[in-house]
Amino acid sequence: MAQMPSHPNAVAPHAYAVYDGAKMGKATLFVSPRMRVGLNCFLPGQEHPLHAHAGLDKLYLVLEGSGVFLLEGRELPMRAGELLVAPEGIPHGIRNTGQEKLLVLAVLAPGPS
Predict the structure, then answer these.
(1) Dihedral class, residue 35 (left if φ above 0, else alpha if ψ from -120 to 50, else beta)
(2) pTM
(3) Residue 14, Ramachandran bin (φ over 0: left; ψ between -120 and 50: alpha; else beta)
(4) Collapsed DSSP state (helix, strand, coil) of residue 16
(5) How many CB atoms are located within 10 Å of the residue 102 CB?
(6) 18-58 residue pLDDT tens
């Protein structure tokens, strides 16, 4: 597993992806009191169940693969190049419904403590 990159530098997120057969993999690319940038890495069938954050917003950007964004009462198809913003308090999650790996960039602001 690669260490968190140093910044400021250009980063190839795929090089930091961590996949785990037992659960969604995670990797942190940057963290400060103002923002956290990480990767959520899903094998087929894996998911990050509905959850919500108090005091921060989250942005998901799909880097590769496909699946669904989970929102309270809804599932929205997702594929590479699409993003979802989950404002504070909105239940959200992700499920890999595809046959390939799913790699999602996650940005949280402000950075969680």
Answers:
(1) beta
(2) 0.94
(3) alpha
(4) helix
(5) 28
(6) 999 999 999 999 999 999 999 999 999 999 999 999 999 99
Output the six-digit token pair for 110: 């402000």
Give the single-character DSSP code of 111: P
Cα end-to-end span (Å), the chain: 24
Lookup: tokens for 2: 């690669």
Contact assessment for residue 37 and residue 106, using Cβ atoms and an 8 Å cutoff: yes
User: 35-109, what's its fold?
Assistant: Jelly Rolls (2.60.120)
pLDDT, tens only, 49-78: 999 999 999 999 999 999 999 998 999 999
Q: β-pairing, 66-71 with 92-95?
A: antiparallel
Torsion sign, CA atoms 61, 36, 2, 99: negative
